[in-house]
Amino acid sequence: MAGTAEKLAKVEAGATNAFLASGPELSTKIRAIVQSGVEVVYDFVGKATFPLGVAAVRDGGVIAAIGAASGQPPAVTEQMASRGIQIRAGGTPQYVHGGTVAVATEQLWDAVRADLFGDLEVVRYRFDQIGGAHADMESRRLAGLPVLIV
Q: What global pTM score does this model have?
């Protein structure tokens, strides 16, 4: 799922099925492929896309709330609870802390140098542009991997 036509083209390049998040009847299109709904929804955006995830996930399925660029997803609703939808949330600090920071950083930069993310656009922001970087993420204008240059 992508938020813009530009992002959709990138998703289509590496996916079996790709949809525009703002497209009409998105949940109907997803349910046409997987009638009972998908097992897991990976939500990288948060509040703005959370209802789409709820509509797409099967009863008893999981929404993995990985990001919150548009704000934290809402709490479990009565409807979600009655459908048995589970929400799993967490961020990098849960997994990368203390002694693991150096290892994780080294692994990430090794992957970047090995061109593992070669199909991702890198968007560079100077340190004095950090406010703009946050604004781009929150408004979902960011189409690439943000890198802060200090």
A: 0.64
